[in-house]
Amino acid sequence: MGDCALRRSGGGVKYSKNIAIGSGDFIGAAVVGLWASEKPNYNGNSNSCAAERVCGHHTQMVWGNSVRLRCARVQCDSVLWFITCNYDPPGNCVGHRPY
Q1: C-alpha angle 52-57-60 in degrees, rounded to nearest 5
Q2: What's the Cα-to-Cα distance from 80 to each of 36, 41, 63, rounded to whole Å?
Q3: How distant, in Å, are the alpha carbons of 14, 28, 49 from that of 97?
Q4: Which segment of the chain is annotated as a signal peptide (predicted)?
Q5: Helix H or strand E encompassing 56
Q6: What domains can be seen in the chain, in order of their start residue?
Q7: Are 55 and 36 a contacting pair, CB within 8 Å?
Q8: Can you give the pLDDT at residue 91?
Q9: Residue 40: how many CB atoms within 10 A of its CB?
Q10: What pLDDT was estimated at residue 76?
Q11: pLDDT of residue 36
C-alpha cells in the first residue's frame, strides 16, 4: 500500500498528468468517465473552461499531440485508491488548442 501523499514531480519532467483519488471500485474506466465528464465545461471557441468550471483533465485526455500514456493505480489504505496518468508529450499548453 502506498501513502498517497501528493507530491510534485521533480524538475525536468517532460510529461503532464491527470490525478484522481476515490474509493470502492475506483478503476480506470471510472476515472476516464470522471475526467471525460468535464467536456461540457470546455469552450472550443475561446479555448477555455467555463467560468468556475474544471476542464483540464478532459483537454489533456484528448490532447492531439500526446501520443504516449502511462497510468497506475495504488491503494492508499483500506478504502482509498490513487490513480495517475502521465501524458507524453505534455498537453494543456497555454495558447494552444487540444486538437
Answers
A1: 125
A2: 21, 27, 28
A3: 19, 25, 12
A4: none
A5: helix 56-61
A6: 26-88 (3.40.33.10)
A7: no
A8: 95
A9: 10
A10: 87
A11: 98
- Spatial separation of the C-alpha atoms in residues 43 and 76, rounded to whole Å: 35
Nearest to 98 by CA among 24, 16, 12: 16
Residue 40's φ and ψ, nearest 5 degrees, are -65, -15
The beta-strand segments (E) located in the chain are 16-23, 42-43, 48-49, 68-75, 80-88
Supply the pLDDT for residue 16: 94
Which residue type occupies 66?
S
Alpha-carbon span 57 to 83, nearest angstrom: 13
Distance CA 32, CA 20 (A): 10
> Which stretches of the chain score pLDDT less than 50?
none
CA dihedral 24→42→6→91, nearest 10 degrees, is 120
Of how many residues is the chain composed? 99
How high is the pLDDT of residue 43?
Answer: 96
Query: What are the grid coordinates assigned to 74, written together?
Result: 495504488
